[in-house]
Design a protein that fits this description.
Chemotaxis protein chec, alpha+beta, 3 domains, Surface presentation of antigens (SPOA), 6-stranded antiparallel sheet, single chain
């Protein structure tokens, strides 16, 4: 229950950010250097756009007025487009629908600039092209405000003014702002110029391009095989990792899905901006600890709070999986993995990142017949260079389409060339035997001549074959198709 001494809601001012807070937030969002410098007067902000931000009860908390330079530069920088796109908009004095839609994403992130102890949840109400009379009234009203000149690396500097509106000093102006904001929001829900534009909601974010999503899915399927291999080696027990789905989620929604005592590793993929997150469910953590401590495949222990010793034992596994992810992505864009820290209680995740949109890769990890959950969180904006590189690689014919995504089989199957490999089982030799090898040495492969071999395509086992001789060449007869290839990987 709130204290009777607490000031009424309408008398609490929403906090306004400092230069460093403003710069750091946009640096995290855009992944490029952003410098904000206080300027004395908001008269330098020739307002073009106005975003309104409300609390959980719909009461107006703050507003952000931006000139056309700030509006277009932020929209272009968010999408990683050329600065020329922003220059064209500034020259024409008009921000097109695509950039306007991008700016909504920027406006939605600016909710956090007004969040504080009294306003823990701030929501974007609307974004409108502000007209001169409203801007003039807002300029001369007695609302607390702060003004920044903002320089985004590689772009023109723009101006922006932030107002704290929660004190209700001018009810008539507050009502006018909400009315025009509601009209703008209703207008934006209509089809304008053949395109449906809408307020950006991080709980229901826009999808990334289909080609990029498909290419990332293919890369992650390769990663899961490598992750299974490194975990098998560390745990001395067969491990299988399978990608289940890629899903857009807001940070709060993702955190709500996690159990208490999940093992969370935050890491960077330098030089990409922001932090990435990989999470082991409590059951998976306990199973990994069982295998490491006993060297055998025991049932999962009772869930409990992870100790410092537990974290030390799990650390090599987290590092190995993160390094495997970096190794997979480095085939498309050079990245280096750097572990930031391990978190053992999900409430400690606060501060790991801003509430941006994430692309979450949900996976299952099977160890000795038991299956557990794991996930990797990719912040979408910093991931853009990887997505572009993956899609570009796929466009040049090195990407295998995924029929599960609805690509018509008849369109691509006849034209594909696929490399097939036949595998003998691995053998072990003493170092002394290896040192004694010379031309003509005979090595036993440990395989019965009548035993079947395994055949794979694109690192995926799909058939058993019987070796044959056709003329003067070795050949193979398909003995059996593998319906579930993953079952055979650990035996190979």
């Amino acid at each position: 229950m709130a204290s009777s001494d607490a000031p009424p809601l309408t008398q609490i001012e929403a906090p306004l950010p400092s230069e460093s807070e403003f710069s750091e937030m946009f640096h995290t969002l855009l992944g490029v250097p952003v410098a904000a410098e206080n300027i004395e007067s908001n008269s330098k902000t020739a307002a073009y756009s106005l975003s309104l931000h409300v609390d959980a009860d719909g009461l107006l908390v703050g507003a952000v007025a931006s000139d056309i330079t700030f509006t277009s530069v932020m929209a272009v920088a968010l999408a990683g487009q050329s600065p020329k796109e922003a220059d064209d908009a500034i020259h024409k004095g008009k921000v097109g629908l695509d950039l306007w839609d991008n700016y909504r994403e920027v406006a939605n992130v600016m909710n956090v600039l007004f969040a504080g102890d009294h306003f823990p949840r701030v929501i974007l109400h609307s974004v409108q092209r502000v007209d001169l009379p409203i801007w003039s009234r807002l300029q001369h009203a007695h609302f607390p405000s702060t003004n920044f000149q903002v320089d985004v690396n590689g772009h023109n500097a723009g101006n922006v003014t932030l107002f704290s509106l929660s004190t209700r000093d001018d009810e008539e102006l507050i009502d006018l702002l909400l009315t025009t904001g509601a009209e703008a929001a209703a207008h934006d829900m209509q089809v304008v110029g053949g395109k449906l534009i809408r307020l950006y909601d991080f709980h229901k974010p826009k999808g990334i391009e289909r080609a990029q999503l498909n290419a990332l899915r293919s890369a992650l399927n390769i990663f899961t095989k490598g992750a299974a291999a490194v975990m098998t080696e560390l745990l001395q027990s067969p491990v299988h990792v399978k990608l289940i789905q890629l899903h857009h989620q807001g940070w709060d929604d993702y955190a709500a899905t996690l159990d208490t005592n999940a093992f969370i590793t935050t890491f960077r993929l330098e030089p990409l901006a922001s932090q990435f997150v990989i999470t082991f469910s409590p059951g998976l953590s306990m199973k990994c600890l069982d295998c490491r401590l006993s060297g055998s495949d025991l049932p999962g222990a009772l869930r409990r709070t992870l100790t410092d010793l537990d974290v030390a034992l799990l650390d090599p596994i987290g590092k190995a999986v993160v390094n495997e992810l970096a190794s997979t992505l480095s085939k498309y864009i050079p990245v280096r993995a750097h572990i930031v820290r391990h978190i053992t209680e999900k409430y400690m995740m606060e501060g790991v990142t801003l509430s941006l949109t994430w692309l979450v890769a949900w996976m299952t990890v099977s160890i000795g017949g038991s299956t557990f959950d794991a996930s990797i969180c990719f912040p979408i904006v910093p991931l853009q260079p990887v997505l572009i590189a993956l899609a570009d690689e796929a466009a040049h014919g090195t990407h295998l389409p995924n029929p599960e995504d609805g690509a018509p089989l008849d369109d691509w199957v006849p034209e594909l060339e696929v490399e097939l490999s036949v595998h003998f089982p691995k053998i072990k030799l003493h170092m002394s035997d290896i040192a004694a090898l010379a031309p003509g040495s005979l090595i036993g492969l440990g395989q019965d001549p009548s035993a079947l071999l395994l055949m794979s395509a694109r690192n995926r086992l799909f058939a058993t074959v019987e070796p044959k001789v056709a003329g003067h060449k070795l050949a193979a007869t398909v003995a059996e198709m593998i319906e579930d290839p993953e079952e055979f990987i650990d035996t190979y």
